[in-house]
Design a protein that fits this description.
- This protein is mostly helical.
- It is about 80% helix and about 5% strand.
Length: about 240
């Protein structure tokens, strides 16, 4: 295999890997979209539980106050019946004052009960709206799961084809270049084979290519690598 053919095979291998990388990126984006939707629905359900707990707390507060109102009502009836039984003016006035105080307390508590009733109604409406949103989002999520599942399957099929293709390209390379290329990929260098750009910089690290190295790349007598480790080639004019 000539140097030109070796470089061509390296470029073809990288093109295949880049295509597979894009497919993997797209696949992950699809899965991330589903995860995001699932997390949002989970957050809505958590909020729904908190709202229901708040509604229960309002109901408990209201019932407690209603019991207090009932107790005050009972006392007022008893005090009213006692008015006819008092023996002197002083006791009568004291009882009247107690009745008035209980009436005021009863009115205050009834107003509080009414306020809580309004809060309960608002909370129930909020729960109903949220329940509708959760139902709609779950329906959409189920549809997206089906559609995205098909797209992910397509991506995985294409990725498998790219993997088979890369094995062919890799097997066609001299062992030293194949190992060097794989080592660069393992170090996270997605661009392992870089073109020398018009401004005489490496298309991978974008650092200037030394004049002597540039001349060797142009001569094409051997496989040359940038200081960053990437294989260098001159793009077709």
């Amino acid at each position: 295999m000539t140097l030109t053919e070796t470089l061509q095979k390296l470029v073809e291998l990288q093109t295949t890997d880049s295509g597979r990388d894009q497919l993997e990126k797209h696949r992950q984006a699809l899965l991330d979209k589903l995860d995001l939707e699932a997390a949002r629905i989970a957050a809505l359900k958590k909020q729904s539980l908190e709202d229901k707990k708040a509604a229960e707390d309002f109901a408990k507060q209201r019932k407690t106050l209603e019991i207090e109102v009932g107790s005050l009502e009972t006392r007022l009836k008893r005090y009213q019946s006692q008015l006819d039984e008092v023996k002197n003016e002083k006791e009568y006035e004291a009882l009247k004052q107690e009745i008035e105080k209980h009436k005021q307390d009863k009115t205050r508590l009834e107003e509080k009960v009414l306020e809580i009733l309004f809060q309960e109604d608002a909370q129930k409406e909020k729960i109903a709206v949220l329940a509708g949103q959760i139902t709609a989002d779950e329906k959409r999520y189920a549809e997206d799961q089906k559609e995205i599942g098909l797209q992910v399957a397509d991506c995985e099929k294409a990725m498998a084809e790219k993997m088979a293709e890369r094995q062919v390209h890799l097997a066609a390379l001299p062992p030293e270049e194949a190992q060097g290329y794989e080592a660069l990929r393992q170090r996270g260098k997605k661009i392992a084979v870089a073109a020398v750009l018009e401004n005489h910089t490496c298309g991978g690290c974008h650092m200037a290519v030394a004049p002597q190295l540039l001349m060797e790349v142009k001569n094409g007598r051997k496989i040359n690598r940038c200081d960053c480790g990437r294989y260098l080639y001159l793009p077709a004019q």
